[in-house]
Amino acid sequence: ETGVTQSPTHLIKTRGQQVTLRCSSQSGHNTVSWYQQALGQGPQFIFQYYREEENGRGNFPPRFSGLQFPNYSSELNVNALELDDSALYLCASSSYRDRVETQYFGPGTRLLVL
Amino acid sequence: AQTVTQSQPEMSVQEAETVTLSCTYDTSESDYYLFWYKQPPSRQMILVIRQEAYKQQNATENRFSVNFQKAAKSFSLKISDSQLGDAAMYFCAYRRGQGGADGLTFGKGTHLIIQP
What is the SS3 assignment for A79? Predict the structure, then answer.
């Protein structure tokens, strides 16, 4: 167990709806990253938050947005859901105090868009 | 842009034997880190081993070791004395060095099967 938790574990939405996924960081970690993992693929980087600010983003449209809170927990919001958004969403926490800044992952949220 | 390639979609090994998973990457950076993560059917991505590019010595963690060839941009994972619990998807990942907030770049993964 990494100490990173995510909720919910599964959810089903319909196209056009909005969804919020949640992540609690490992104790002592101040950075959160989010990834999308389509079936049979490696995870793809969505964005990273540090000190409540987005400080890095992958190739995802603006309808993917996030928040980080003072306790370093985080949310991923996706608006106007599309069928291709169906995937496993992984949250990872890390610390800038660690030179390597190793990322530790949560168990993920499986999202199905119908 | 950095890319990570895992050329073996699936590997099979007998329990107690040794298996090597391949990974190559492409980058123009000199400061970076490489990782192997394991993802069992439970889905949670678990760190197996990490390597800092500036270190010439190959990383080892118990039964897991890497062969890091910086000039060849190769980073293979060797699992010795394979156990049934090693069965999982294995992902190779790259991250730019300090100051880069562009996350991990993953390969497509290798499915490791352990034959009892």
Answer: coil
The residue among B43, B96, B105 with the most chain A CBs within 10 A of its CB, best to mutate, is B43
**Tell me: the pLDDT tens digits for A18-43?**
999 999 998 888 899 999 999 999 99
Q: Beta strands A87-94 and A109-113: pairing type?
A: antiparallel
CA–CA distance, A87 with A71 (Å, rounded to integer): 27
Check if the beta carbon of residue B77 is closer than 8 Å to that of residue B89.
Answer: no
Comparing CA positions, the residue from A92, A2, A12, A104 lying closest to residue A44 is A92
Sign of the four-CA dihedral B52, B56, B61, B65: positive
- C-alpha to C-alpha distance for A77 and B15, rounded to whole angstroms: 43
Single-letter residue type at B100: G
User: How many contacts does A have with B, using Cβ atoms within 8 A?
Assistant: 67
Q: What is the Cα–Cα distance from A22 to A11, expressed in whole angstroms? A: 12
Q: Does B102 touch chain A (CB under 8 A)?
A: yes
Give the type of residue at A37. Answer: Q
Convert the pLDDT of each residue in B31-88 to its tens digit.
Answer: 899 999 999 987 889 999 999 999 989 999 999 999 999 999 999 999 999 999 999 9
**Three-state secondary structure string covering B53-91:** CCCCCCCEECCEEEEEECCCCEEEEEECCCCHHHCEEEE
